[in-house]
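tool_call predict_complex ligand=acetyl coenzyme *A
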Amino acid sequence: MSETAKFILGNETYEFPVIVGTENEKGIDISTLRGSSGYVTYDVGYKNTGATQSAITYISGEEGILRYRGYNIEEIANKASFLEVAYLLLEGELPSKEELAKFENEITHHTLVNEKFKFVFDAFPNGAHPMGQLMTMLSMFSAYYPEALNPHRSEEDRRLTIVRLLAKMPTLVAMIMKFKQGHPIVYPNNKLGYVENFLAMTFGHVTEEYVVDPVFVSAMNKLLILHADHEQNCSASTVRLVGSSHANLYASVSAGVAALWGPLHGGANQKVLEMLEAIKEDGGDTQKWLNKAKDKNDPFRLMGFGHRVYKNFDPRAKIIKKSADEILDKMGIDDPILDIAKQLEQAALSDPYFIERKLFPNVDFYSGIIYRALGFPVEMFTVLFALGRLPGWMAQWKELRAEGQPIGRPRQIYTGAAERPFVEIDKR
Ligand code: ACO
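tool_result ok
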């Protein structure tokens, strides 16, 4: 007999089914609670709320496990290409050699972004944040591909929208970087692979052929894979919530970018570097900054530390830390910022405040160090996170649509004024 949960309220007992996931994680299905009892559950920040069942990504915060469609992140980050992982997330299975070739070919032939987008870039002031530009440009695609406005139009339309987004996102990100630098845009090159093309458009120049460094390609490929999905985080939940109103995929993904921008989510990678720079400027006293982070009267938090789900270690951080060491070694970079990062990491990991609260470096602590070594300006870091996260957002949206899930609409406990009469003011 399947397990049920009993809920006793006064003289009434309510019974709810227990849902068991593939990895034996359990949830109580309380969807009938309000109808039968008039009560709602209360869980600010959704710390204990399962908003969906999903077959895309599995995370165990206690064991430090991250799997895409059943494949461990350690294996996939070292053996797969980003497009292979995108295919896996979106289609549910790894592609065959032929399927991958077809997918890569299709992506390669949708990389151009309409020339009119350049005028939109011109409308931004210098110094505009790249995440704001990315949000704008992504939602603008809905105007260029109006067949996506009705997400139910056809399966083929939905597939084409996904291909377009995956193909055009690197071009868009590279355009943002070029605009930031005031350099002419470098167009996509169909002879190059996904990551190579992105690096050529970003770091290449129209005046000379760009030689793609395999070390850069491998690092970038790994970073994109590590960011590709992370189940029901703030931005994925946003994409799902927006998508649940039957908004088109461009609008949903643009909303995901907005959610990612915040410093408590994807924006942390930019904040980590800014924090390390500030510590350096301040004389490099890491203990002083650690004390600031522990001081409850000080709003400062150690950026890149802590995670809502991982409470022992972040498996992505483990992989990326190794990658950061390799790249800096290979490139012969001796960066004082890195020394500060190492000191901070060691001090925090042995400090009772951080140990008790299970706060340790997350993926964002190290990703910024690699992005910096590769030559990206700090403000581009969160955009690079979005580039990696795109297949995950789209897989979450696709799953939601395929299952025909209802509109997301949480309840609340109202705490405002009770009913009161409206007293007109004398307006004469
Ligand atoms: N520095 C100092 N103290 C911290 C930090 C930190 N980075 N993170 C959490 N704490 C403390 C809190 O003050 C709280 O202490 P208390 O119990 O004494 O009140 C305790 O640890 C628990 O913190 P919460 O904020 O309740 O944990 P939550 O799960 O809600 O937040 C979050 C997780 C947002 C990631 C948080 O750890 C944080 O703000 N970290 C810094 C920002 C960051 O690196 N974000 C990237 C996350 S990874 C990603 O999105 C890809």
